[in-house]
C-alpha cells in the first residue's frame, strides 16, 4: 500500500510540474520587465494561489459545465497573454507610455488567471479520479509558485544581459505563448 501512495505522490508531482511550466514560460517573458524582488515574490504567490483555486473550482463546477465553457476560457487566456505581450512590445519602442497591464492588482489577477486556466480542466478530472484532492492542490500551488519565481528571476537576469531588447523579447514570448494556448 505505501508503494501505491509513493507512486501517486510522484504522479501528482509530475502533473504539478507540467501545469507549472505554463507559469514558468510566461514568467520568463514577464520577468524581462523591470520588476523588483518583492513584486516577483507576490507574483509567484498569486500564481500559486490561482493554481490551487482553479482546479478546486473545476472540481466544484463539474463535468457538464466544463464542456460548455472550457474552450472559451482557453481562448480568453490566450488572448489575455497576447494583449500583455503586444503591450510590452509597443512599450519597448516608446518608453514614455505607461503599461496597459502591469503585474499589480487587476493586471496580476489577469496574469495569474491566464496561466492557471489549464488547471481548471485538470481539476475536473481530479474530482472524478479519487486522487487525494488536498495533496494535489497543494502540489499544484507549490510547483507553479516555484516555477513562476524561477521564470521571473531568469527573465530578470536576461533583461540585464539583453538591455533594451529584453522587453521586446519578453513581449514576443508572451504573444507566442498566447498563440500556443489558443491554437494548441
Tertiary shape: globular
Taken as a percent bin, the fraction of beta residues is under 5%
Q: Quick check: average pLDDT?
A: 77
Structural class: mainly alpha
Described by strand count, sense and barrel closure, the largest sheet is:
none
Low-confidence stretches: none
Number of DSSP helices?
6
- Give the number of domains: 1
Give, in order, the helices and strands. Answer: HHHHHH
Kindly, what is the distance between the CA atoms of the first and last residues, rounded to a whole number of angstroms? Answer: 38 Å
Cα-based radius of gyration, to the nearest Å: 17 Å
Topology summary:
Elements: H1 2-30, H2 37-61, H3 63-93, H4 106-129, H5 133-162, H6 166-183
Helix pairs in contact: 1-4, 1-5, 1-6, 2-4, 2-5, 3-4, 3-6
GO molecular function: manganese ion transmembrane transporter activity
Keywords: Cell membrane, Ion transport, Manganese, Membrane, Transmembrane, Transmembrane helix, Transport
Membrane topology: Multi-pass membrane protein
Amino acid at each position: 500500500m505505501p508503494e501505491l501512495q509513493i507512486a501517486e505522490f510522484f504522479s501528482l508531482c509530475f502533473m504539478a510540474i507540467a501545469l507549472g511550466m505554463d507559469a514558468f514560460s510566461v514568467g520568463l517573458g514577464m520577468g524581462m520587465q523591470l520588476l523588483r524582488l518583492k513584486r516577483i515574490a507576490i507574483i509567484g504567490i498569486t500564481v500559486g494561489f490561482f493554481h490551487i483555486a482553479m482546479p478546486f473550482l473545476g472540481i466544484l463546477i463539474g463535468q457538464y459545465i466544463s464542456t460548455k465553457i472550457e474552450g472559451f476560457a482557453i481562448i480568453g487566456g490566450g488572448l489575455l497573454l497576447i494583449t500583455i505581450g503586444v503591450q510590452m512590445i509597443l512599450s519597448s519602442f516608446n518608453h514614455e507610455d505607461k503599461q496597459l497591464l502591469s503585474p499589480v492588482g487587476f493586471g496580476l489577477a489577469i496574469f495569474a488567471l491566464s496561466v492557471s486556466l489549464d488547471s481548471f480542466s485538470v481539476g475536473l478530472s481530479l474530482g472524478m479520479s479519487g486522487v487525494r484532492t488536498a495533496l494535489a492542490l497543494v502540489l499544484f500551488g507549490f510547483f507553479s509558485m516555484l516555477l513562476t519565481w524561477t521564470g521571473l528571476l531568469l527573465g530578470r537576469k536576461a533583461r540585464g544581459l539583453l538591455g533594451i531588447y529584453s522587453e521586446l523579447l519578453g513581449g514576443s514570448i508572451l504573444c507566442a505563448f498566447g498563440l500556443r494556448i489558443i491554437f494548441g
